[in-house]
UniProtKB/TrEMBL annotation:
Belongs to the class-II aminoacyl-tRNA synthetase family. It is found in: Cytoplasm. InterPro entries: Aa-tRNA-synt_II (IPR004364), aa-tRNA-synth_II (IPR006195), aa-tRNA-synth_II/BPL/LPL (IPR045864), Asn-tRNA-ligase (IPR004522), AsnRS_N (IPR048952), Asp/Asn-tRNA-synth_IIb (IPR002312), NA-bd_OB-fold (IPR012340), NA-bd_OB_tRNA (IPR004365). It catalyses: tRNA(Asn) + L-asparagine + ATP = L-asparaginyl-tRNA(Asn) + AMP + diphosphate + H(+). It comes from the Eukaryota. This is asparagine--tRNA ligase. Residues 1-24, 37-97 are annotated as: Disordered.
Length: 578
């Protein structure tokens, strides 16, 4: 009779072997590992730990352990079944893979010659044989049928593959994001079924143009909805292949076209201004400086000064140009490089300027909504979008200060050097800013401005900012007799709910002496600005203009959380990759 030992303290079930040197830990395992025919012929010796003697287990312990051993046996059987099933699947897949190598797909020459087309152009080709190239956006296998959603940048197309077209090596190993060429007959989908465009391609011939990896390197392993924001930023080139990101960019393109059309209707001419400049527009603190053949130069902050020089030659003008701001702002509305839509108009009043901005924005939105394709994009991205009603609310800077105080929206207090004053919060123990009421002369901070805009809930023209808060070139507001308070400017910001400021504009100083005094006041050397000053020398005129942040406008229109989603490859402090 053989003996199996169990030491409940230092024994090990697996890989123990039940000898006195390597005892098992549990009696159940000891029964489980004894063949059933041997159980009766085996003696079991059990002890609590090394300090106790080995002895026979009690009857009740034996009964319980035998039951537990049955459970272990069931578990083992299940594991074996699973393993065998997996082996079968693997073998089947391997067989399928080997078989697939023998299947060669050839195009049937008796079929009609296919028409090569982009997805967006397919509707008129229904019933015909077509050839479409694109990327595998989605893939689904259903018994012997393979469904592919193809993406070519102009749209999505559902393709159905059956028979040998699903059995080739390329079909068996096809991964998402591979590029393929599909050929087949385009058929309207039956009533009650849905597919992009209302049709599907019944494929009779296809080939892979560029494969994509599976397993670890598979597209969905590199990127998915749970990916960390920094990974999403590093993989922006892959993110762009997604439906949301590409819809935003598609809307962006439509938006720029619609703006251009609106400007054409208002007789503004498009010009292309330089990015490399030697003058500042919006203050030295946000300039990206560079060495330009040994001379100091900057990346442009705004094309405004150049647009102003175009007025006497081309009339009212606009440009769509990148602007650069070296702001250390990590907010959801700041970029280091952004697309700046700027316009300049001659012989206008401040009132004309605000009416023009309102007209351009509303007419552009109307154009987008009148186009079914862009209207659908807006509906997808921002289902609750309603076009703003006109006229836009106009609120003077002084009234905004009063409004903020009435609504108890405060600002952090600052010391004489502009540092925020803090106080320890009793409850949290953290240093928190001391909050105070706004006063006329304060710069309205982003947070307060947003709160106000969100409460009011409609576009607001905030106008008449104090001269000392604004850039050197702004025209002063005429002062009424006996008027107190800071000198204000004919300047306006357009604030939109959810985003805040999307447009900044003003009337410009038209008088040369006044401009020279403004350079002086701001400590700007007038020499590099000779060409800008000359505008006041040779036939000056009342004029004004504005800049609109395209990404901010798009964030408002498409209800995006941040402007970073509204740029192809956004740049912010520390980020210029990819
Ligand atoms: O208010 P800003 O600084 O005005 C100008 O640059 C004027 N020279 C424009 C002009 O009158 N031609 O900028 C205008 C707009 C802002 O309202 C905002 O929408 C956008 O440009 N903007 C930014 N967008 C993203 N990131 C930034 N860092 C931005 N700074 C300004």
């Amino acid at each position: 009779m053989s003996t199996i030992y169990i030491d409940q303290a230092s024994g090990i079930d697996a890989p123990g072997n039940g000898s006195s040197d390597q005892p098992y830990q549990s009696l159940a395992y000891a029964f489980f590992s004894t063949p059933s025919t041997e159980v009766e012929k085996t003696q079991y010796q059990i002890r609590k730990d090394a300090t106790a003697e080995y002895g026979e287990p009690t009857q009740s312990a034996t009964k319980k352990a035998k039951k537990d051993a049955q459970g272990l046996d069931k578990k083992r059987q299940k594991a074996e079944e699973k393993e065998s099933k997996e082996r079968d699947i693997k073998e089947k897949a391997e067989r399928r893979l080997q078989e697939s190598k023998k299947i060669v797909l050839t195009e049937d020459p008796s079929l009609p010659q296919p028409v090569k087309a982009k997805i967006v152009k397919l509707e008129s080709l229904r019933g015909q044989r077509v050839r479409v190239s694109g990327w595998v956006h989605r893939r689904r296998d259903q018994q012997e049928i393979m469904f592919i959603v193809l993406r070519d940048g102009t749209g999505y197309l559902q393709a159905v593959l059956t028979g040998n077209t699903t059995k080739t090596y390329d079909a068996v190993t096809l991964q998402l994001e591979a590029s393929v060429e599909l050929t087949g007959t385009l058929k309207a989908v039956p009533e009650g079924q849905r597919a992009p465009g209302g049709h599907e391609l019944v494929v009779d011939y296809w080939r892979v143009l560029g494969s994509a990896p599976g397993a670890e390197e598979a597209f969905t392993n590199r990127l998915n909805e749970q990916s960390d924001p920094s990974i999403l930023a590093d993989l922006r080139h892959l993110v762009l292949r997604g439906e949301m990101a590409s819809s935003v960019l598609r809307l962006r393109a439509a938006l720029l076209s619609a703006f251009r059309a609106s400007y054409a209707e208002h007789d503004l001419l498009e010009v292309t201004t330089p990015c490399l400049v030697q003058t500042q527009v919006e203050g030295g603190a946000t300039l990206f400086k560079l060495d330009y053949y040994g001379q100091p130069a900057f990346l442009t902050q705004s094309s405004q000064l150049y647009l102003e020089t175009c007025l006497p030659s081309l009339g009212d003008v606009f440009c769509v140009q990148e602007s650069f701001r070296a702001e250390n702002s990590h907010t959801r509305r700041h970029l280091s490089e952004y697309t700046h839509l700027e316009a300049e108009l001659a012989f206008i009043t401040f009132d004309d300027l605000m009416s023009h901005i309102e007209a351009i924005i509303c007419e552009t939105v109307d154009k987008l909504l009148a186009n079914p394709v862009t209207a659908a994009l807006i509906k997808t991205l921002n289902p609750n979008f309603t076009p703003p009603s006109r006229p836009f609310m106009r609120m003077s800077y002084a009234s905004a200060i009063a409004w903020l105080n009435e609504h108890k929206i405060q600002r952090p207090a600052e010391d004489a050097d502009g540092n925020v004053i803090t106080k320890k919060d009793e409850a949290t123990g953290k240093d928190e800013p001391v909050m105070v009421d706004h006063e006329v002369g304060d710069d309205i901070a982003e947070a307060a401005e947003r709160q106000m805009t969100d409460i009011i809930g409609t576009p607001i023209f905030l106008y008449g900012f104090p001269a000392e808060l604004k850039a050197f070139y702004m025209q002063k507001m005429p002062r009424k007799e006996g008027e107190q308070g800071p000198v204000c400017t004919e300047s306006c910001d357009l604030l939109m709910p959810g985003v805040g400021e999307i447009v900044g504009g003003s009337m410009r100083i038209a008088d040369m002496e006044e401009l020279l005094a403004a350079y002086k006041r701001e400590g700007i050397d007038s020499a590099p600005y000779y060409w800008f000053t000359d505008q006041r020398k040779y036939g000056t005129c009342q004029h004004g203009g504005y800049g609109l942040g395209v990404e901010r406008f798009l964030a408002w229109l498409a209800n995006r959380y941040t402007v970073r989603e509204c740029s192809l490859y956004p740049r912010w402090p520390g980020r210029a990759t990819p």
